[in-house]
Amino acid sequence: MAGTSTKLKGFIFLAVLVAAFNLRAAIVSVGAVLDDLIHSFGSSGTVAGLITAIPGFAFGIFGVAAVPLAKKIGLTGALTGGMVIGLIGLIVRPWVGNVWAFVFLTGFVVIGIAIANVLLPAWIKLHGGAQIVVLMTVYTTVLGVGQTLGPLSRLFFDGEDSWRWAIFVWAVPAAVQVLMWIPMLFLKRYDFPQSPATKAPTGKIWTSPTAVFIMLFFGIQSMNAYIQMGWLPKIFVDAGVSPSNASIGLAILGIMGIIGGFTMPVAIARTRDRNLVWFPVAFGVSMFIGYVGTWLWPAQGWYVWSFFLGLGSLCFPMALALIPARTRDPRVTASLSGFAQPVGYILAALGPFVVGSVYQAVGSWSEILIGLALGTIVLAAVGFRATRKVMVDDELLAAIERQDQKQGNT
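Structure tokens predicted for Cyanate permease (410 residues):
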């Protein structure tokens, strides 16, 4: 934000803040009322699995389109358009009487979130100036705030249709977001990063090993995050925990996300590589403990296991912070975000759906929790490689040079 006025810096700060707040609340609020929602529609566990999987699938599908869309109408235009579509879904979705209409409008809700997931890091990289780390800290921290508050909305509504109000209330901050970003269209207009005169790292993003491992790290941790957001309250309730306490358990995950959002961008910027690589290993061990505890003693220690799962979920803000931290050129940031997040979210979407299908088939959480615990070993190993301090730009340039040399020799 160097060279911009104090008022514009403040406006950019607030724009990032409101956008980040709306990235999770509308999703996790559904997980907290999933039992009531399914009962109201008379649907099955498989449909419940589909509902919890929609965010991941939509993030993957629409995330792929985010960068090409931004090239046509600019980062700010794409972000604002997605926010308007999401607001429409949030306003209408709670009041439909058919589960498939609910599923369809959930797609509307997550379109805007999918676009923001991919483009907001690139927007920050382009407009953040000297305050990129500060804005990424705001982004990941406030994202955790939204995730924390999302499931708590059910505590403020009673009655047969309380679940509808519990998810409708999140249309209010979404409307504030739209009102905040529409003026940004006039301030930023077309703002996709232009190609510099010097040689640019424009190779295929998957030729960078670091980009691939960031994608895998993002995907595996997102799969765990969406399984937890969609199913953890039901796992606790089935074990005898009250619905209110189950919602609090999910909120504990969000509180840990706030801590992670505040600390991870700074940790990545300041920690030496040889020390940073152990962070995802520690987070993986914590998540392993949380899953095993939830399997063996869910009712006795639901708050403890929520804490360990939440500590493990610090992988999420770490993965987000790695996207701008491991790139130099804003176009590479957009490319990495457009690769890691959509592909990662498609991997993540399979998790909640498989969990719902397996639970429908076996009627038990034990096998599912054991499988999730074993999966944290893979998460730790992939995260170990993804956090190495290697710049994606350098790997792309090296891949281009190798290709040029190969063509020169033939």
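The CA atoms of residues 290 and 304 lie 8 Å apart.
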